[in-house]
């Protein structure tokens, strides 16, 4: 568990109050990245990496920054909605994204610690399923995580192959 100090809690609350949700996600990602460096080689490092990726992706998606993560998740969520007869406009998606950010960041502030990876993913899935009225298969975060890990694995394989040449 990564504890956050009172100053960090105040900063996160200020970001919530100013509706700077993507910046709140980036701040938590920075805390995770800093902590990950201190536990390299341990199981915790892997958990922190997963969480760091989630917060980094969530920042891009919430900011609607034009990244592949943002475009993919917004488009795939809209497509999933179409498949079950639920219209998910960009405004509806953004409202849900903002509510998820408020929920996740507020829980971190209240707890004084960064949430466990299972808790964060659970909140994300519930947000898609309940707030957007999607079936569980409509949560596209799983695909984003899959593509990132596939890309990382391919990069490692490529580097290993190049070293053998």
In words, what does this structure look like?
The model has no long low-confidence stretch (mean pLDDT 88). 27% of the residues are buried. The chain has 165 residues and is mostly helical. It is globular, with a radius of gyration of 17 Å. 78% of the residues lie in helices and 0% in strands.
Structural class given helices, strands, pairing? Answer: mainly alpha
User: How many helices does DSSP assign?
Assistant: 7
In round numbers, the mean pLDDT is: 88
Helix/strand order, N-terminal first: HHHHHHH
Radius of gyration of CA atoms, rounded to a whole number: 17 Å
Distance between the termini: 42 Å
Assembly of the depicted chains: single chain
What is the number of E strands? 0
Overall geometry comes to globular
Contiguous uncertain segments of 5+ residues = none
Please give the share of residues in helix. Answer: over 70%
Largest sheet: none
Give the helices and strands, then pairings:
Elements: H1 6-17, H2 21-38, H3 43-63, H4 68-83, H5 90-111, H6 117-131, H7 141-164
């Amino acid at each position: 568990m990564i504890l956050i100090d009172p100053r960090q809690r105040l900063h996160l609350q200020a970001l919530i109050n100013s509706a700077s949700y993507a910046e709140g996600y980036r701040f938590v990602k920075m805390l995770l990245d800093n902590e990950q460096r201190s536990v390299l080689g341990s199981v915790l490092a892997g958990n922190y990496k997963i969480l760091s990726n989630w917060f980094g992706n969530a920042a891009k998606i919430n900011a609607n920054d034009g990244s592949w993560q943002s475009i993919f998740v917004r488009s795939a969520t809209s497509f999933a909605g179409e498949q079950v007869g639920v219209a998910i406009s960009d405004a509806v998606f953004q409202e849900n994204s903002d509510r998820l950010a408020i929920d996740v960041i507020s829980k971190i502030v209240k707890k004084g610690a960064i949430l466990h990876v299972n808790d964060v993913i659970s909140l994300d899935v519930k947000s898609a399923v309940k707030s957007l009225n999607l079936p569980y298969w409509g949560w596209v975060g799983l695909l984003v995580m899959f593509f990132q890990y596939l890309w990382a694995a391919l990069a490692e394989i490529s580097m290993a192959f190049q070293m053998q040449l």
